[in-house]
Design brief:
Largest sheet: 6 strands, mixed
Number of helices: 17
Helix content: 10-25%
Number of strands: 50
Strand content: 25-35%
């Protein structure tokens, strides 16, 4: 490269390294790869500990008592607890205050067992730590306020060495005499999952055995081939709604009922631009600047705009069909001199509620008269409120502590006051002050029920980290506390509800975690405690083109990487994130495909996916994948998954039958039920079992076993099995000459009787002669296939058995004589034809008193054939009355 060496290298070190005191006789250096921190410990800490990282500007300095040589030192993720290992038997802990001042009263935890020694330790989550010993794992919860630890779980196994990947919370243990049997563990808040162990190939196995696979030769990393999509399970919508960002001239407002963003320039005088609920919907107008706005919202039919400029009144502007405003405003003042309006919400077409510091005022709006009429008022002291437009429920915070919540349910022309309830507070301050804040409470519909979501920064019961408490709203009784979500972290949080999942965003760690209250948790008989479904991960990075943003840029469009978890973010229910300074509104979305790898337990994965709305293709892909060699699941797991699928399938069929029968006309399925994914037999046949045809490496015994399991599951839930599934299993058995197994399946009714199945068996007679009799036996058992049995017997020229059969079933008087006579004549057996002919002559005599065949039966050719062989004298005489 002319004049420069830059072009001759493709790897470089960062230009500004983190500098620290080098190793010396007095200074030991340690590195914590989880927090990316370097510890320079002088004189065992007595003359100082300097912690640097994850960048050159981050430094913590403190001192601690020199109690011997250190082998490891690491901060917890929230930097509030320091763990130190000085001996192979125990780990010491020091609590740190918010200002990084240490509480030098140490506390410690000794490992279990006299012969046990600690190889190392790692923080797995806020206040959770794992000791790796020579005899396995010891997983602990740390209680810093009590200065104690509680053992959550232990795993016993001989350990040579370990490796830790903090980004994925995965621990890898080397076991076995050669060290090549690796046992991974996945840590989640409050729990640990033991993953399948595996063996690393060795080029040479020494004799006698000795440790071959060394710690220095093994590491872990997250690598996604060609794409980062698989490393995230939450993303923002790719096409955000763009609006003018907040500035000195522009104020931004959001209406969560209509999902609209209002960008108001100069109080509306230089324009109001309304965008949403999608990027294509835009309304633009101007209005007179009459002062600073505090709220602005359209009615549901977009015909009336409500504006609040003062705490005493709300103004209204009528809009025409073409979104042209009638600038002659009209207004409504709140009632009472000391009353001030906190906010307002449209509750229905032309109906609005004012929330004041002294209660509610519910109004009917008459746009043509430009006036309002008060329908109802409720008096109560109000701190703040929350509104859920999808359910038309308003929640008021009352009381000096703010924890007495009063819900109201609005219907057209009326409002219903629901029972109030009290939210538990971890600590009640003296003197009393407002404790439950508006930012910590929201409402959402989850699985068809309305929940009040309360963030509790200081949980009860000695647990650490914040938690979310869910209260389920009741019609006739106070809201009931049903679930607690363990966050395991502290700091600033925001919540969304996406596809019935509670998504919690944590600003400090810049991660999000997902909770599913339908999945099994720890129940104490009253409340279910839940941990995140997956380890916390960041939202997928997103980029924007710069034009339109208040960011300096050149003449050409350039990409801007959005700051995730920005302090400017405002979160609205159910799934909206707004960055007013950036001028973007996103919808939070769930990515299902990456979960297939992230949740290794296929039964848990399927349980989770069946509760999601758009998971059908992923579910079918997982089911198909479990049948492919190299990825095959066990028959036990496959059986459990088929039961899960068919349980939902059965519920759907029963709901449809009830609706068709009008047994429950008022019990319409909620939106969750209507949108639930159903995997029926045609889906399985087309998208899953087709793998048997596409992949010739699958053993036929496995194919048959899988199909039998699916049929067993369908029978268990009393779902009629479609004939094409039987056809698939029979064809598989026939293709591999497994006739004995086929015979057994039919004889012991593993394959249920049906007409299509019997017909298929009849077609197999040429390759398996007993199939004919098996088919006949099946048709007889059905008792609704008499016509088919007769046809089969006649086609096989078994006329006498056919005659005996129609006599047995009492069909002698109704069967077609012509059909039998034609079959008898085709046999060219004269005596057989004689027998059949005489049988029907006797029937004619019994029915009509005359042996002759009526002209309507068209049997003339058979009579002539009889006469040509046996003569006319052989015909039965016509008896005349004497």
């Amino acid at each position: 490269m002319a004049g420069s060496e830059d072009g001759t290298y493709y790897i470089e070190l960062s230009p500004n390294p983190i500098r620290f005191d080098p190793v010396s006789k007095l200074t030991n250096v340690f590195f914590d790869d989880a927090n990316k921190q370097v510890f320079a410990v002088r004189s065992g800490g007595a003359t100082g500990v300097v912690v640097k990282g994850p960048d050159e500007k981050s430094t913590i300095t403190f001192r601690m008592e020199d109690r011997g040589e250190l082998s490891s030192i690491k901060f917890s993720y929230d930097m509030k607890i320091l763990a130190i290992q000085r001996s192979p038997k125990s780990v010491e802990f020091i609590n740190f205050a918010e200002d990084s001042t240490p509480d030098l009263r140490e506390y410690s935890q000794t490992c279990k067992g006299k012969s046990t020694s600690i190889i190392g330790f790692n923080w797995t989550n806020i206040n959770e730590i794992v000791f790796i010993t020579n005899q396995g794992l010891e997983f602990y919860q740390v209680y810093p306020e009590k200065k104690s630890l509680k053992c959550l779980k232990t795993f016993g196994t001989s350990v040579n060495w370990f490796d830790w990947l903090p980004q994925s919370a995965v621990l890898l243990l080397s076991t076995g005499s050669l060290g090549n049997v690796l046992q991974p563990f996945h840590f989640r808040p409050g729990t640990v999952l033991k993953l399948p162990k595996f063996e690393v190939d060795l080029p040479v196995v020494p004799k006698p055995a000795k440790l071959c696979l060394l710690e220095r030769d093994v590491s872990m990393a997250n690598i996604m081939a060609g794409s980062e999509d698989g490393t995230y399970y939450i993303e923002l919508s790719p096409n955000p709604i763009r609006f003018d960002p907040v500035s000195k001239l522009t104020n931004v407002f959001f209406d969560d009922a209509n999902k609209q963003v209002f960008a108001v320039r100069s109080g509306g005088a230089t324009g109001v631009v309304v965008k949403g609920p999608d990027e294509k919907s835009t309304i633009t107008f101007r209005m007179e600047d009459r002062g600073e706005l505090s709220s602005i919202k359209f009615s549901y039919d977009m015909k009336i705009l409500a504006i609040q400029r003062s705490p005493k009144s709300v103004e209204f502007i009528n809009f025409a069909e073409d979104s042209t405003p009638d600038l002659r405003e009209y207004s409504q003042t709140c009632k009472g001199k000391s009353t001030s309006i906190i906010g307002f919400n449209w509750t229905n077409i032309n109906e609005i509620v004012f929330i004041t510091n002294q209660g509610l005022e519910f109004y009917q709006v008459y746009p043509e008269k430009k006036s309002l009429k008060c329908l109802k008022t409720f008096g109560t002291s109000v701190n703040w409120f929350d509104w859920l437009p999808q359910s038309a429920v308003l929640l008021l915070s009352t009381g000096s502590l703010g924890n007495v919540l009063q819900p109201f349910h609005f219907r057209p022309g009326t409002v219903l006051k629901l029972p109030k309830f009290e939210v538990d507070l971890p600590v009640v301050p003296k003197p009393a002050k407002l404790c439950l804040l508006e930012r910590d409470v929201s409402m959402a519909n989850i699985y068809g029920h309305l929940y009040i979501i309360v963030l509790r920064h200081q949980p009860k019961g000695g647990s650490t980290g914040a938690e979310i408490v869910l209260y389920q709203l009741q019609k006739e009784s106070p809201a009931r506390k049903t679930d607690i979500l363990r966050l395991g972290m502290s700091g600033r949080f925001a919540t969304n509800v996406v596809d019935n999942l509670v998504v919690v965003h944590h600003q400090a760690s810049k991660t999000s975690m997902v909770f599913d209250i339908k999945l099994e948790g720890e129940n104490d008989g009253y409340i279910t405690h839940h941990h995140p479904v997956l380890s916390p991960l960041p939202i997928k990075p997103c980029k924007l083109l710069l034009p339109g943003l208040n960011i300096p840029s050149g003449p050409e469009k350039t990409e801007y990487t959005c700051e995730l978890y920005s302090p400017n973010w405002i979160v609205f229910q159910p799934n909206i994130v707004i960055d007013a300074k950036l001028g973007c509104l996103w919808y939070v979305q769930l990515k299902l495909n990456p979960l297939v790898i992230m949740i290794p337990d296929k039964c848990k994965l399927m349980e989770f996916l069946l509760l999601r709305q758009d998971s059908k293709s992923v579910i079918l892909s997982v089911c198909r994948q479990m049948l492919v060699p190299g990825q095959q699941g066990s028959l036990t797991n496959i059986s459990q998954i088929y039961d899960m699928l068919n349980r939902v399938y059965k519920d759907c069929l029963e709901s449809e039958m009830m609706m068709l029968a009008n047994e429950a006309p008022n019990a319409r399925p909620d939106s969750y039920r209507r949108n639930q994914v159903i995997i029926d037999q045609s889906d399985m046949y087309t998208h899953v079992f087709s793998v048997f045809e596409d992949n010739k490496g699958i053993q036929y015994k496995f194919m048959v076993a899988v199909l039998i399991e699916y049929i067993r599951s369908l029978n268990h839930f009393v779902i009629p099995v479609q004939h094409y599934l039987y056809e698939l299993i029979i064809n598989t058995l026939v293709h591999h000459n497994c006739f004995y197994q086929l015979h057994q399946f039919l004889q012991y009714h593993v394959l249920s009787d049906s007409k299509p199945l019997a017909c298929l068996m009849l077609s197999l007679e040429s390759v398996y002669p007993p199939a004919h009799q098996l088919a006949l036996d099946m048709l007889k058992r059905l008792s609704t296939a008499n016509e088919e049995i007769i046809e089969v017997l006649l086609s096989k020229q078994q006329l006498l058995p056919a005659l005996r059969f129609i006599r047995m079933i009492g069909a002698m008087d109704t069967v077609s004589s012509r059909k039998f006579l034609d079959a008898a004549m085709a046999t060219e057996d004269n005596m057989l034809f004689y027998t059949v002919f005489k049988f029907f002559e006797q029937r004619n005599y019994r029915l009509r008193g005359n042996p002759r065949f009526p002209s309507g039966e068209h049997c003339d050719q058979y009579i002539k054939h009889f006469e040509s062989i046996f003569g006319t004298d052989a015909l039965s005489p016509v008896l005349t009355p004497s």
